[in-house]
Write a structure and sequence with these properties.
This protein is α+β, with helices and mostly antiparallel strands. It has two domains: 2-216, no CATH class; 224-384, no CATH class. The protein has 15 helices and 13 strands. A nine-stranded mixed β-sheet has the order 8-5-4-3-2-13-1-9-10, with helices on both faces. It is globular.
Length: 437
């Protein structure tokens, strides 16, 4: 499947120019790194250089850097992650756009590689909603209403997308957009103002790896992992809510005055909250170690109660789902690095045939980079920490203001340019008459 990307012509010119500047800085970074490696005199110095390079970030930078060097502006590959909804009979789809370089707002070299996303929610009636990226990776506060569709594939065939210059935010693009605030639909004023600048544009088809391809051919299953997380979260919620307000006050006083009474109950409630935080706000790559530590603590304080045994059993089940998610991605990344020919077999998709090997080589590394993100960040903004929720509100306000000002500034420039063109044409006719010849 391919998605339809809408590119404003003036943004395309800016993107090409910025790509070349980032490419120069990447080549300089690469040359400096190779020169540093050549100057190594002993193993200790080599180890120091290796320690300075974050392994996963280095793989990401080197693979996307090669793609940047050989590719074109707006070379983009997309992939779909399917996740269960928080409510019964609801599904979430997260589309990640993978780009070879990040940020178009400043002239400075930010970082190689970019991952931007858009999230879709399908309710029990088959109605779809979309959360575009507003800025710095944060999703919009209010979803766009897309209507009822027979399938996600049908929706994808109709959608148009824009990667906003400035931070490569991924947005849906459609006329007469309405957003849902609470349960009431409203016209999206911000989107109407913003899309007024997209008069002259070109289209480009970009490849999309479907969630079925990822699950069947690559054996990477985010859905089962998300389902297990939600199941554990609901059970933990019930356990936490079972504690009375009086107990919570007593616990707060004990903590404040360092009393050790009822130590077991206090520790147990603390660990329940720690589990909940780990589920949503710790990346899958780091969950294994934390979950095992929590299990050990639970075994220490457990008084052979069924409640503790249930939790321990659930956490052991989570560890198995973690292995089933993380291991295939790690193996894919490792095997493709060792034998690039295996990558061609793994990603033998017809719609990728026009992409360079270096662009396709980025895919396994992109899967690994997504693993370093929390589940709340990937597809459950309701579960973000209070701090992250606050940042999302700030970026929603700032992002919309930035885009409105940008669109209005662009319109002013265009109007001035048209007027100057008209004036100069008239002046030319007056000052350069045929009578002079």
């Amino acid at each position: 499947m391919k998605l339809k990307l809408k590119i404003p012509k003036r943004d395309l010119v800016k993107e090409i120019d910025f790509k070349e500047r980032v490419k120069e800085q990447y080549l300089q970074w690469k040359a400096d790194l190779l020169e540093k490696a050549k100057s190594v005199n002993d193993l200790r110095e080599l180890r120091r250089i290796m320690d300075e390079l974050d392994k996963n970030q280095f793989d990401w930078s080197s693979s996307t850097g090669e793609w940047l060097e050989k590719g074109e502006a707006y070379d983009i590959i997309c992939l779909t992650i399917k996740l269960p909804g928080l409510k019964k009979n609801r599904i979430r789809y997260v589309i990640y756009g993978i780009l070879s370089f990040s940020k178009g707002l400043t002239d400075s070299f930010d970082h190689l590689g970019d991952l931007e996303r858009i999230m879709y929610i399908k309710n029990e009636r088959g109605v779809y909603f979309a959360f575009s990226t507003i800025g710095h990776g944060y999703l919009e506060l209010f979803p766009e209403i897309l209507g009822q569709k027979n399938s996600f594939e049908e929706l994808m065939s109709e959608e148009e997308y824009v990667f906003e210059v400035g931070d490569h935010s991924l947005c849906t693009e459609r006329d007469n957009t309405k957003i849902l605030i609470g349960k009431v639909p409203f016209i999206d004023i911000f989107r109407i103002i913003k899309t007024n600048i997209y008069k002259d544009h070109v289209y480009k088809k970009i490849p999309l790896l479907s969630n079925l391809d990822i699950e069947k051919k690559l054996e990477i299953n985010w859905f089962n992992y998300g389902k297990e997380i939600i199941k554990i979260d609901k059970i933990i919620d019930k356990k936490i809510k079972s504690y009375s307000i009086a107990f919570r006050i007593k616990r707060a006083l004990n903590k404040a005055f360092n009393f050790i009474k009822k130590r077991r109950e206090i520790d147990y409630l603390y660990l329940l909250n720690a589990i909940k935080s780990t589920l949503w706000n710790v990346p899958p790559t780091k969950q294994d170690k934390i979950v095992r530590k929590i299990i050990k603590e639970l075994e220490k304080i457990s008084n052979k109660k069924q409640i503790d045994e249930d939790i321990i059993s659930l956490l052991n089940g989570l560890l198995r789902h973690l292995d089933n998610l993380v291991d295939p991605i790690e193996f894919l990344k490792w095997s493709c690095r060792q034998d690039p020919d295996k990558l061609k077999k793994k990603f033998d998709f017809q719609f990728l045939k026009d992409f360079t090997p270096s662009a396709i080589q980025t895919l396994p590394v992109a899967f690994r980079m997504i693993l370093d993100k929390t589940l709340s960040d990937i597809g459950y903004p309701e579960k973000l920490t209070p701090t992250e929720k606050g940042k999302r509100i700030i970026f929603w306000i700032a992002g919309n203001i930035y885009r409105i000002l940008r669109s209005q500034f662009a319109n002013v420039n265009k109007n001035l340019s048209d007027r100057f063109k008209t004036i100069t044409t008239i002046v030319d006719k007056i000052t350069f008459s045929d009578d002079y010849e």
